[in-house]
Amino acid sequence: MKAEPTPLPLAPGVVRFYSFLTRAGSLxxxxxxxxxxxxxxIPPKYFYDEEGCRLFEAIxxxxxxxxxxxxxxxxxxxxxxxxxxxxxxxxxxxxxxGVQAKTRILIQALQTxxxxxxxxxxxxxxxxxxxxxxxxxxxxxVGIRADYTRPLALPAFAGVPVRRKVVFFPGSTVxxxxxxxxxxxxxxxxxxxxxxxxxxxxxDLRKDKATLDAAYSDAQGVTxxxxxxxxxxxxxxxxxxxxxxxxxHKAFYDPSAGRVEMHLESRLAQFVHxxxxxxxxxxGETIHTEISCKYSVAEFQDLGKRxxxxxxxxxxxxxxxxxxxGMVAA
Length: 330
Ligand code: AVI
Description:
Blueprint: E1 16-19, H1 27-35, H2 50-60, H3 67-77, H4 79-86, E2 90-95, H5 100-110, E3 114-119, H6 122-135, E4 140-145, E5 164-169, H7 179-193, E6 198-204, H8 209-216, H9 222-238, E7 247-254, E8 259-266, E9 270-274, E10 277-281, E11 286-293, H10 297-306, E12 309-316, E13 322-329
Parallel strand pairs: 1-4, 2-3, 2-5, 3-4, 5-6
Antiparallel strand pairs: 6-13, 7-8, 8-11, 9-10, 12-13
Helix pairs in contact: 2-9, 3-5, 4-5
The structure holds N,N-dimethyl-L-histidine.
């Protein structure tokens, strides 16, 4: 018989960190492979270096980028119902750390005693864990450094009663996966919470093209800087010679696919060196940097069902811009 692992000890006010990182994706490998594809592409996870995180925070404040404030408003407006859905003594597992305002709303309302944020970036994890532990003296915080898109067996913790595990995944980050990847991700979240566990997930809704085009090409050009920072990061970290001024930010909503695509478009014929390799660009050729899929409530519920969840709740705002789903692992 396999021995059960010993539960890890907890103490309120003492923030613990564990690293479950087996193999961090390599920027060099992924960029070289992506630039060699017929449609050049770079995975969106590489947006988030220090400057990228700062620019993303600025995006969340933009008038055109309705997602963050609308999701926060939904959580505030429906918090009593959300707390009832989650129930008492939930272990709150957040995929991604640092979405402070939304997490605070939940912890306060649920009176959460065990909070487990999971993030690949240790500095983000530490900053948000310490802040939350300082704010809620009764809270046990266990930060896990891991890639939450990969299978993950979380340890058990001693000293805090847990009736169910709940994964919180806000921000419509699930939209940055293709629908197939989202399905795999949901199946894995289903395994993480176990039977009877729950998922609280923020999902941006399908809507008119003008609203979405504006949200991803704002008037102040912050999203353009966020996109172009990817080239600067590659220059900094891989010694590449991209000239960002020779590329333009391009983002558009494709209503038939239900997704926003973000690209960096070459303004002219040029070549670039990355880690000693040369890559040629024709005028107008693009590097595909991100997709952001949008779902109707019914479409996302269907995806949840296919992953083994029973969709129980879908909270939305009065303008039907954004949704927060409450699903239970069947
Ligand atoms: C993080 N993610 C959900 C954002 C989105 O809306 O897809 C990233 C982003 N890209 C451009 N603006 C914001």
